[in-house]
Amino acid sequence: MSSEPTGVPRNDDWSEERAEWIDSMAYVLEQYGPGAAQQLLGDLHQFLVQRRAAPVPVLNTPYRNTISVDEQPPYPGDIDLEERIEALIRWNAFAMVLRANDEEPGLGGHIATYSSTATLFEVAFNHFLQARSTEYGGDIVYFQAHASPGIYARAFLEGRLSEKELENFRRELQPGGGLSSYPHPRNMPSFWQAPTASMGLSTVSAIYQARFARYLENRGLKPRNAGKVWAFIGDGEADEPEVLGTVGIAAREQLDNLVLVVNCNLQRLDGPVRGNGKIIQELESHFLGAGWNVIKVIWGTPWDALFARDTTGALQRRMDEVLDGDYQMYTVLGGDKQREHWVQGNPELSDLMKTLSDEEVRTIKRGGFDHLKLFAAFERAVRADGRPTVVLCKTVKGYGLGPSAEGRNTAHQKKDFSPKERAEVGQRFAIPLSRPDLESACFYRPEVGSPELAYMRERRESLGGYLPQRSDAAPALATPPLERFESLLEGSGDRKMSTTMALVRFLARLLRDKDVGQYVVPIVPDEARTFGMDGLFRQAGIYSPQGQMYEPVDAGTMMPYKESKEGQILQEGICESGALASFLAAGTAYSHHGIPTIPFYIFYSIFGFQRVGDLIWACGDSLCRGFLLGGTSGRTTLNGEGLQHQDGHSHVVASTVPNLVSYDPAFAYELVVIIRDGIRRMYEAQENIFYYLTVTNENAEMPAYDPRHHDGILKGLYRFNRGPSGLERKAHLLGSGAIMYQVLEAQAVLERYGVSADVWSATSYSELSRDALACERWNRLHPSRKARKPYVEALLEKERGAFVAASDYMAVLPQSISQWVPGGLVSLGTDGFGLSESRAQLRNHFEVDARYIAVAVLHRLHTMGEMTAKELKRAFKELDVDPEKASPVAS
Ligand SMILES: Cc1ncc(C[n+]2csc(CCOP(=O)(O)OP(=O)(O)O)c2C)c(N)n1
Ligand SMILES: [Mg+2]
To answer: Which range has highest mean pLDDT (256-270, 359-373, 530-544)?
Structure first.
């Protein structure tokens, strides 16, 4: 393992000496074994290190299979039968994509990915992937999304999907049900375990799933009954930062329950992944560097004999130097041309390859289509001890689909197979259908009881049942009653606290709760101190599979940094993707393990939706449960941190996730009521929803809980207090989050202008507008029935006066309920980029402080004819509102 040596003598003066060294090494190897040889090399390396002459390590092994022929275990299955089964699956997968497009052109669908990865899947399905049982924890499998037709075709042969369902691939609204394009648990909740269609996310998700399984075991919530996480990904996909960016933790935490299989067909959608290089070698060095086991499956069995005769290493050298772009070319060349390119006039190579006919050269298999090689690799991977394993399998994109697809740059999207090509593919797979049936891509399933179906069934039974298969059987939890959180409900008196502080106290209490405490999983990405959560370190401990092998620097303090094997807090470091993947793992443990863990992931709110929004979308798809908590939220409430920290839009994005319920509470008791009800809905009633709540770091006196507000808090709006009586003008102020305190101040200001303003706490605009839209829809579709009334409309319809809303989020958020507010709603928000300033200055800048709220009311009253222009002008002056001030949106 060395880089290009420098200063090497040019002549061969020292060739004898070199030979002697090699001889000595050979002797040591023979006499004392490989361990001794490695030790000797290590000693030499140390010697060079001391002389500052150590070689730069290169983390690559030669371009050949990691597992040698003599290490290969015997194959436990019937390869002929497995190949026959694979051919049937390949055909049906092919037919599924073609038929969908014959019926409805433009439906899309991909066949080249599955064609490349079919044997990988089949070896895994027949011998490795295990379903959950009483004895075994069960494997969680992430399948390459674009290979889904193959998974469906297998389930069809297994009798788990009907022909009708196959016909309705990508037509999910058809009678009898259809099949989703890609793995989507939400759309096929008893089938798919995990979504994978957004590339890169499956790797980070799989890594953190594997880690979370260990967490559950270490905490005693799950028996140590094994269970692996398998992720099959593409080689092009490996360029996504979520892939290589998160592999470190897998090695650090010794996740030997994780197997990542990369289908290295050397192509992505447009063309080669690394035409000028070698993706397998590149990935090998990344993963070796990160501390993984790396198993390369490059060449098929027919090459073994050639390697055995390659005593000088000429063949290996050629394999090492040929680029992926060339290898791709070989897949489309005839045997003679391939040989020519391969040999390149080298007599040694030419001699070596003489034993193979041109046809043999052409059809010689890559490792990813060789059962023996794949079995050996997977078998080693599942035996791994102390490290995660990546298996890098060399394949061909579009394999078996004929010359118009195989290895072509256009393979990924290829669907336009002529009748002749269809028949050829069918014949290649020996499908016993008539030519017209092959041309119309009919499905084919052998008789029940046929050797193929019997074998498949026997294999799956021996592995615990069919996969993929998703379960949602988990025990329902008893929701803790509100009284358990009394101290947070009774108000803070004249002490001030923030909603973040309230949240932390709530969590501290919840962690001790007899009904749900052990299931709580606090997750934080290196921000616990920011949120004042460091007190929880000692109470709950930070999870670390190694425990704490050092004495923390703050050991003698009240809040030491306490790491522990049984620790409950997941401290993710600065990795929002990883933290969100932990949330996803903890929020789906009810499904994967039957254990209803409740994740509370608290993060800088701006680094949530816009940073890892796609993972949050995947949470929605995964039917994940739990609480996302946007900390230090509010564009003007987080003051000093500036433009890239101040979030005034996460609630707008949150409203785009259909099964996400979001709130922007102002008071501690609202937070308690909302979270408690969330636990009830998700963990007692087992609804497939999850929550997003923002909390702020502005301290304020927290009012006491009035039980009459309970339902209003949850529905999104309730009257917090009434304005003074006896005034001639009326207004209604809707406030949320920290801006509620500006609203309360504005209430007092307005009194001076003869306006009695009621204050309403708007905990959730998105819940209000979802309810209203649902009512409208129902009314539209049922014109002859008694119309339903949106909650917000029913609540406000009898009120009169000016309605003004103010929040720390974009104006569009309150605007979403305007049409159900009498006379419409004037909405003030924080549109525009944030900047560093004091809270007061920021609220002036964004025009959401008490003065601007009051002015908005007065202006609205003026347009309603209840205030003269002169009075309004005077108010502007008194409240020091500059009409020519620059707009915060543009400045
Ligand atoms: C985040 C993301 N970006 C882009 C795509 C579109 N896309 C789907 S498959 C594909 C190419 C996949 O190449 P590779 O990972 O090598 O898999 P292969 O099909 O070659 O096995 C692309 C770009 C996607 N699904 N997700
Ligand atoms: Mg690829």
So the answer is: 256-270
Q: Considering all CA atoms of the chain, what is the largest pairwise distance in Å, rounded to the nearest integer?
A: 110
HEC string for 761-792 = EECCHHHHHHHHHHHHHHHHHCCCCCCCCCHH
What values do phi and psi take at 628, rounded to 5? -95, 130
Measured from the CB, is residue 459 less than 6 Å from ligand 1? no
For the chain, the residue count is: 891
Mean pLDDT, range 607-635, rounded to an integer: 97
Between the CA of 300 and the centroid of ligand 2 the distance, in Å, is 19
Higher pLDDT, 685 or 334: 685
400 CA from centroid of ligand 2 (Å): 16
Is the CB of residue 274 below 6 angstroms from any atom belonging to ligand 1?
A: no
Question: Ligand 1, closest atom to CA 614?
Answer: 1
Closest ligand to C-alpha of residue 117 is 1
Answer yes or no: is the C-beta of 99 below 6 A from any ligand 1 atom.
no
Query: Could you tell me how far CA 659 lies from the centroid of its own chain?
Result: 16
Is residue 538 classed as helix, strand or coil in its secondary structure?
helix
Nearest partner of 64 among 231, 310, 247, 235, judged by Cα: 310
The string of DSSP letters for 408-437 reads -TTGGG-----HHHHHHHHHHTT----HHH
Cα(281)–Cα(57) distance, integer angstroms: 14
What pTM value is reported for the model? 0.96
Cβ neighbours of 659 (radius 10 Å): 15
- The confidence score (pLDDT) of residue 3 equals 46
At 773, the amino acid letter reads: L
Structure tokens at 603: 């993060």
Q: Find out whether the beta carbon of 199 lies less than 6 Å from any atom of ligand 1.
A: yes
